Amino acid sequence: LASGPRQSNSVFYEIRTYDIKPSKMKEFVEMVNKYFHLRTAHSELVGFWSAELGAMNKVVHVWKYENFAQRTAVRHALANDNDWQGKFISAALPLMEKQHNEVAYLVPWCQLGKPPKEGGVYEWVTFQMKPGGPALWGEAFRAAINAHINTGYTKLIGVFHTEYGLLNTVHVIWWNESPDHRAAGRHSAHEDARVVAAVRDSVRFLESQKNMLLIPLQCSPLK
């Protein structure tokens, strides 16, 4: 029930969330689509999404690093990349209102997944758990996740537990064919005794939760 796979490898994920000025969202997305290849030349992008429901004028992107030394080297290279700094950063920063980042590990019982096809939507659910880490709530949380997987209406992409940022935070990414498909699945899950029992056990350790419906950008590997 360790908080992440660092007991066997050093891979981690940086989750970056940017709030964009409402009048500049279209411009920001256009810039990302045009210039983000300059950024992905330096390190691996897992996914890049814009919020459709649950938040507005917000983008979320996730980066994979083999270790902290790699991230340090990448950040140094980006600071000295004249194309990246001149074509994207200098123009994009005035469009932003706020930036936030976290470092997280995949939980040890989860591998990063992919959707069965392109064209769906992603649900990003954030759970704030009670202090104590997965040693306290990991088993119950895993059971609740598995209960939703077993209904078959949704596809699990990843479960991440924070290492830097607000601790005892778990981010879960799901994929669905459409918002309507997700809604129908949720209604069915709420009537499934297995899901109800697992969730009831897990919420004993829950302090809060929130979710967003996300649309992948053109540059996102997860589409």
From TrEMBL:
The family database entries (Gene3D superfamilies) matched by this protein are listed as: 3.30.70.100
Q: Pfam families from the entry?
A: NIPSNAP (PF07978)
Q: Which InterPro entries match?
A: Dimeric_a/b-barrel, NIPSNAP, NipSnap_domain
Q: Which GO cellular component term is one of those annotated? A: mitochondrion
Domain NIPSNAP: where?
A: 13-111, 122-221
Kindly give the PANTHER family that the UniProt entry links to this protein: NIPSNAP-RELATED, PROTEIN NIPSNAP HOMOLOG 3B
Kindly provide the name given to this protein in its UniProt entry.
NPS3A protein
Upper classification of the source organism reads: Eukaryota, Metazoa, Chordata, Craniata, Vertebrata
**This protein's encoding gene:** Nipsnap3a
